[in-house]
Amino acid sequence: MKLKGIHHISALTANAQENFKFYTEVIGMRLVKKTVNQDDTSVYHLFYGDEKGNPGTELTFFEIPMAAKNHHGVSSISSIGLRVDNDATLEYWKKRLDDYQIKRGEIVERSGKKYLDFEDFEGQRLSFVSDQTNKGVKSGTPWVHSPVPQDKGATGLGPVKLTVRKPETTIKVLTEILGFEKTDRSYPSSVDGQPDVIVFETGEGGNGAEIHLEERNDLPPERMGRGGVHHVAFRVEDDNELHQWVEKINRLQIPNSGFVDRFYFRSLYFREPNGILFELATDGPGFDTDEDLDKLGESLALPPFFESKREQIEAKLKPLHTKRN
To answer: Looking at the domain 6-316, which fold is it?
Structure first.
């Protein structure tokens, strides 16, 4: 029962069409699934990833059209990493982000890796992270039809930063329950007077399997909105292993969702003590289960248990044009 790394990150947007434009045209990721939020089918759930949406490459968004702007604070997932092949690729992204007038920082080093921080059009906080010195979880393969050259594209999700007020309780969940290990690669906080950021890893380790834990005592709790992150999911091998996790979390008397069938993967949800939502998700069946690989994301995909309601679901959705020319 060893978690394999990061499975996906799910965030919030108030504008699915602009979100699609940004992540496919600017960042160059592939929309691998256009579907609905299974807990509220009146809104879209968009999945971006590598060529086929492999686990570990998926950045997803729930569209909440009236969502207010995210107010940053503790009890939050405060930064999303996107892996790229090497340090030189970060220079490519500096220029590309400038060409699109996107807010960014400078290239910096953290925990022995080079980073380039930036924000999307709604203030979502992201970082390109170089795999040049990386060892561990294998990256994905950028889509050949991306507007970004394939050798410059995002190859998967990198380190995820959690910001909390009381790190001890989150550390206990990460290490004693989920099996993460603390590394010796902590690094200074970007804010004076705050403790070092602690780096944890699971599975084979590396950028695709890291959690960076930031303690902040100068911030209020986050008020989630557009530009905020809803949850982080970690990779589980298969259904059998996920059932074992359900039994373990129940045995520890942690409130949880139980086994949930999302069709494209199976899931278990629970909150750690600082209030951040964690998900454990299986690697399969995958996004090409119900669509041809070359047509992923072009049409509204619904799991079989929603097909009988397709007409009612589509009637509530604003048209979202994602078909390739």
So the answer is: 2,3-Dihydroxybiphenyl 1,2-Dioxygenase; domain 1 (3.10.180)
